[in-house]
Amino acid sequence: MAKKSIIDELHEIQSLGGKNYVDREKAEELSEKTKIPEAKIYGVATFYTMFSVKPRGKHIIRICRNLSCHLAGAENIVNKLKEELKIDFGETTEDGEFTLEESSCLGMCSVSPAMMIDEMAFGNLTEEKIPQILKKVREGDKK
Ligand code: FES
Fold first, then answer.
1. Beta carbons within 8 Å of 16's beta carbon, 6+ residues apart
2. Ligand 1 centroid, distance to 37 Cα (angstroms)
3. What pLDDT, on a 0 to 100 scale, did the predictor assign at position 1?
4. What pLDDT, in 10s, does the model give residues 27-80?
5. Ligand 1: does its nearest atom lie under 6 Å from the Cβ of 74?
6. Per the domain annotation, does 54 fall within a domain?
7. Together in a domain, 100 and 41
8. 14-37, pLDDT tens digit by residue?
9. Which of 34, 64, 76, 96 is the most buried (most CB within 10 A)?
10. Do 57 and 99 form a contact (C-beta atoms < 8 A)?
């Protein structure tokens, strides 16, 4: 059986505990298991934006801030998200549900403005769609 890459291991660590981050203790355990220095593991965890070493919300919202999305009105979407969630970039909602992050191009320029919530892609966003999308994600948690 093929060995898992550090990236795969970090994804697994991050998915544990519902806080979407690479816990220091788990990184130490991974270091012991793989014999890879902890600094290197932490280096990978801090290099890639998909990982965080700080606790985050259950769902990560990544809104694209690149040119196509900007020209298509991403700023209005950003403002609506901030208003609905009552948080700024890098922050997590009080209930621990959502963390809001900026992203570079998500590869969905043809349907800009665009965002991802976890692995789900949303394009052709309008301010009106934001409350519905957030509601659906919250409801999905209850199923
Ligand atoms: S510029 Fe936003 S998805 Fe490409």
1. 23, 26
2. 36
3. 43
4. 999 999 999 999 999 999 999 988 999 999 999 999 999 999 999 999 999 999
5. no
6. no
7. no
8. 998 889 999 999 999 999 999 999
9. 64
10. yes
Q: In the predicted model, is pLDDT for residue 3 greater than 90?
A: no
* Nearest-angstrom CA–CA distance, 9 and 105: 25
Tally the domains of the chain: 2
Under a CB-based contact definition with an 8 Å cutoff, are residues 64 and 115 in contact? yes
Residue 108 in contact with ligand 1 by CB distance below 6 A:
yes
CATH number at residue 83: 3.40.30.10
11 inside domain: yes
Decide whether any atom of ligand 1 lies within 6 Å of the 66 Cβ: yes
Tell me the CA–centroid distance for residue 106 and ligand 1, in Å: 5
31 CB under 6 A from ligand 1? Answer: no
Q: Which two tokens stand for residue 54?
A: 């700080």
Give the pLDDT score at 65.
94
What domain range includes position 39? 6-47
Ligand 1 pocket test target in 62, 63, 64 with most atoms within 8 Å of CB: 64
Same domain, 134 and 67: yes
The one-character DSSP state at 110 is: G
> Do 25 and 64 lie in a common domain?
no
